[in-house]
Amino acid sequence: MRARYPDETGSVTRDGLSLGYEVYGNGDPTILLMPTWTIIHVRFWKYQIPDLARRYRVVTFDGPGNGLSQRTTDPDRYTPDAYAADAIAVLDAVGVDRAVVVGLSRGGSYTLRLASSHPDRVSAIALVGPALPLAPPYLERVTRTVERFLKPYPEDVTGWDKYNLAYWHDHYEDFVRFFFDESFNEPHSTKAFEDAVRWAMETGPEILEAESKTAPTDLDDLFGGIVCPVLVFHGNSDRIVDHAVGVEAARITNGSLITIGDAGHMPMVRDPVFFNLALRDFIERVAA
Amino acid sequence: MRARLADKDGFVARDGINLYYEIYGDGDPTLVLVPTWCLIHSRAWKMQIPYLSRHYRVVTYDPRGNGKSGRPRGKSEHSWHHYVDDILAVMDATGTTEAVLVGLSMSGLWSNIAAVLHPDRVMGVVSLAPPAGLGIVLPHREVHSYTDVLDTDEDWAKDNVHFIRDHYREYVEWFATKIFSDPHSTKQIEDNIAWSLETDADSLIDSDLADVRPQEDMASFYSRFTTPLLLIHGDADLLVAHESSVELARLTGGTLVTFRGSGHGLPAREPVRVNLLIRDFVERVAA
């Protein structure tokens, strides 16, 4: 059961890979809700769709590897460039010239790449907890994790050391549970946690392995061509991406920053009313 | 922080006990959200107030024994007729000639009684998971004595005067999990525990030992029910048997809406469906 069902569903094939999309409502402007890291599919926007679709047209699509889209182990399909091209293919398929684009975490990179490579198709962007190597403490943790990623994991592995390729293959669900426990560090997150774990079980370690082989993001490519209005949401208790990253992303883009108090990595799920009202306010301003 | 603050509040003294009430909105008719019982105060309706007060005038109050209301002592102070008369006292104090009553659990029972005894003041009743006094009780609630000293405190054996008196906090923590047996109820459970800690073991025991309903044959009592009645009951309720509401609907000619798989705490756990059903009911009885 869903609060709101799509008015249109379909799929578009880009470069041999089928991508499923959904369209809700028919207002203006169009809001494109981007996929994030393919560990989950786009149902994580479920608290935004019914609200946004009352006023705007909402387009969602799954990236390769999860949800309604085809699974592939080709790393080239998981780059920000590939997601930007997928998004353009979906916008073309549903007949949308320009959209306000919203992206979470790694979806923040995909959103930035879409806006920098196709400024004529993107009227504004909102980034939520964008996963970008911008702030030193976060960068250090990511670097440490990357260094250990391909090494054997110790028997008593805990915490971020579970972010390890062999561990993913041996104990995928346990890694997933660790990751979403970190993502939903707010109290009363049992439903959000269970949803995310279930979505993560719709893909698997071989897909995440392919995704992990994408080359590090070139920041110039992401930020170089951004000319549209930018809004950054970041929870100040985010344990996946430090709040300092959001601060820096807003500074670089001359964007607005909304810091959400006591919020973790996915405030659209855990604080949807606040998030939706703030997003609507941004959309109304950029659409005026 | 609250989604909606009261437009007006005040106290009414009845029979020496202060009752604290709040008024939200100014629509028509007036809905009285009757406090459940002394274990929980009026914030139990927090998911109903913002929605219903957009359409109607909503009156809430804290029950005797909790919240900002008085703390009478002795089981006679907690008998059913006080709880029913408190409803009328709050209606009088707020200038409410007639109202739709919405009750949960014990206050569902007392709202039903008020409708039978005061049909001129009660336009309709929405009664959520009410005990009915018809002798239809869940088996696990009849295993242990409430007043005897037990040699166990496993699960339902906690529902015992000695355990409540000696381990009040542990009792309310356990009891909250029985009210909110649905998955993902951590917030509702924490709220409920906090509200329960605003009263005490003696008040709760007094209210448990009191006469909770008229000492007469309830089937014939309910045959005098002339007010529109909507019953809402979860079929996985661990406190009050769903079957009891099936029988009550049959006796009164009321409507029963069954929530498949739901436990006892319907207003907090199923607020959208509950609110829409209340609205639909009020629109029909007010027409």
Description of the molecule:
The complex is a heterodimer of chains A (288) and B (287). Helices cover 41% and strands 17% of the residues of chain A. Chain A has 12 helices and 8 strands. Chain B is an alpha/beta fold and 287 residues long. Chain B is 37% helix and 17% strand. In chain B, strands 1-2-4-3-5-6-7-8 form an 8-stranded mixed β-sheet, sandwiched between helices. Chain B starts with 7 loop residues before the first strand and ends with a helix. At the A-B interface, α7 of A face α6 of B.
Write the layout of secondary structure elements.
The complex is a heterodimer of chains A (288) and B (287).
Chain A: E1 8-14, E2 17-24, E3 30-33, H1 49-52, E4 57-61, H2 80-93, E5 99-104, H3 106-117, E6 122-128, H4 136-149, H5 165-170, H6 172-183, H7 190-200, H8 205-212, H9 219-223, E7 230-235, H10 243-253, E8 256-260, H11 267-270, H12 272-287
Chain B: E1 8-14, E2 17-24, E3 30-34, H1 49-55, E4 57-61, H2 80-93, E5 99-104, H3 106-117, E6 122-128, H4 161-166, H5 168-179, H6 186-196, H7 201-209, H8 218-222, E7 229-234, H9 242-252, E8 255-259, H10 266-269, H11 271-286
Helix pairs in contact in B: 2-3, 5-6
Give short descriptive properties of this protein.
heterodimer, A: 288 residues, alpha/beta, B: 287 residues, 11 helices, 17% strand, globular
What is the chain-wise order of helices and strands of chain A? EEEHEHEHEHHHHHHEHEHH
What structural class is derived from the secondary structure elements of chain A? Answer: alpha/beta
Strand order of the largest sheet of chain B: 1-2-4-3-5-6-7-8
Mean pLDDT of chain A: 96
Major pleated sheet of chain B = 8 strands, mixed
Gyration radius over CA of chain B? 18 Å
Strand order of the largest sheet of chain A: 1-2-4-3-5-6-7-8
